[in-house]
Amino acid sequence: MEVVRAGTALLGASNEINHAEFRAFVAGLQLRDRYPGIEGIGFSPRVRRGDLRAFVRAVRLDGITPFHVWPAGGRHEYYPIIFFEPRASRRHAVLGFDLSTDPIERAAMERARDTGQPAASGTLRDAPPFEESQQRDLVLYIPVYRVKASIQTVEQRRRALIGFVFGPFRLHEALPQIVTATTPSVAFDVYDGTADNPAALIYRSTSGTGASRFRSMESVQVAGRNWRIALRSSGAPIGVVSPAAWRTLRAGLVLSLLVFLITRGQVRAWETAALHEVELRASEQTLRQSESELQRMVARERNARSQVEAADRAKDEFLATLSHELRTPLNMVLGWLAMLRTGSMREDQRTYALEVIERNARLQAQLIEDLLDVSRIVMGQVRLALCPLALAPTVSTVLESLRPTAEARGVTLHPPLALETAKIWGDASRVQQILWNLLSNAIKFTPSGGHISVEFTEDDHYVQVCIRDTGIGIPTDFLPHVFERFRQADSSTTRAHRGVGLGLSIVRDLVELHGGSIEARSEGPNHGAQFIVSFRTVSASAEASPGTVDTPRSPVLDGVRVLVVDDDAETRDFLSRALTITGARVTTAESARQAFEQLRTEGADVLVSDIGMPEEDGFSLIRRIRSLSGGPGRIPAIALTAYARSEDRAQAIDAGYQLHFAKPVELAKLQAGLATLIAPHSNDTLPT
Hints:
Blueprint: H1 2-14, H2 19-29, H3 31-34, E1 41-45, E2 47-48, H4 52-61, E3 77-78, E4 83-85, H5 103-115, E5 119-120, E6 137-145, H6 154-160, E7 161-170, H7 171-178, E8 186-192, E9 201-204, E10 214-222, E11 225-233, H8 243-342, H9 347-379, E12 387-390, H10 391-408, E13 412-414, E14 423-426, H11 428-444, E15 451-458, E16 462-469, H12 503-513, E17 517-521, E18 529-538, E19 561-565, H13 569-581, E20 585-589, H14 592-601, E21 606-609, H15 618-626, E22 637-641, H16 646-655, E23 659-662, H17 667-678
Parallel strand pairs: 13-15, 19-20, 19-21, 21-22, 22-23
Antiparallel strand pairs: 1-4, 1-7, 2-3, 5-6, 6-7, 8-9, 8-11, 10-11, 12-14, 14-18, 15-16, 16-18, 17-18
């Protein structure tokens, strides 16, 4: 019984054990040598009907193949044998047998389950899987419950049951080891039950088969069953110190030794169970760590998802705002153009209408340029022409260009009190863009009567430009996001200020490309804001700044033959009219093929060509022209295109154009470019 208890302790420690571990445990008990009569130790788990298929698959994966539950048939629960060791036993075919299908064994299993105590079955002879035995056997069952489960009541024990550890006994081998006969004239009979009914006889010793002169009866309880033991003697009465007494003493010593061996096996089982418990705790600790890591991963995933959702919302808001900002000026342009076509407007109204159209067209051009700037920055395609740059003249130029806008809004601009003398490493046009964006932003968010000031501070390595306003301020919760793309403090349909949320993002990126930094400060709504930009300074011995460049005046292109190539008729008409006003003689072509033929037959002094055209693009056209010999192959050429990226410009120059202008182009810049190309000194730079 204690040997079977040891198996219960092993499984009770962790509830999970594989076949190899169980085999090693039983091998350590040395059943055949130490405990004759015990055929082996097995385990039969409780399997519910819905889990049967998965259970069989798992057992097979554990190395027990082939495995199937038998006998076949649908049952509410199954108790198949999955372990039975040692395998050398004659019961090698018992695996998969459902013990609950035999009524004698099922009764013992139910008794063990409900009491929580070992339970022995009635004697078995013909019941599977013991039908091969020609002797009466019994099976001892000990229930195994879930670890840490409460088993105080019968109902709790039934819910917590996970299976049975069992051990079949050969009574004709086990009983002689316990009740050894004292003399040939003394015999023992063991009956299953309280009566010495011949049908209930489960063991009879081979000695003392003659007539009995003396007889005594004793009842004992074994694993929940009552046994009746009858002692018979056919010899003389036993003396004071008879040989039978000595043999009984020896039998007691054997029993004591047996108890010692069982106890030692139990201790070993406990040690093994304790080792598995340590391993279980280590596994539980690892599992807890894995769960903690999983929770951290889930938290990171949720945070990332929140950021992505916020970015998606910002993108959606940006697209909605962009649509609004594009459609609003377009509506003004189309509306005033429709009124101009009526021909019923006074001259002052026509002048006002043209001013509105020009202003809104420039707004759209600036918006598109901002979008292109963002694209260039994201793609890492912004190239800066860095040189020593005097910051004060650049600030003054931007202030003067924005002063009319500020005065129209009733905002006062205050220039720096003292002009700084330090120079920075900067790209003049990009630094001007940084200052223009910051100052125009301050003007937009400062109400009438407000003030905007520009201040300089410098040290040995940096110069700081602080733009301070008394405007609406920045909410504290939005301040960390003020430089993020597509983010606006107010992106609702009731917002009071226009814009798409790109200006400050572009400013930050351009400042960082210059090796500087920018910081936004505000004490909250209605407390104004400060933007502090830091640039690295250069030594006083650095190359002098080129300063600002005046906008060139529109040159007079008297008699210059200009060939305009564009597949869009309206663009050809506009350029023809605009250049004709300056005195140029303009001819047009709607395709690259037509332009090439006109150039060969009629000639021209300068070429202005689009790039993206059907059938043949502007790149192919200029390469064909450059392949010509003589004057036509050396004609100056300008690429005028909507492809405005830096790589598009480089590709146009590599193909053979001298200048590249992005649509929409200011007419003054185009005229200045034409004048530069036809000047006498430009011939030195033309390809040969």
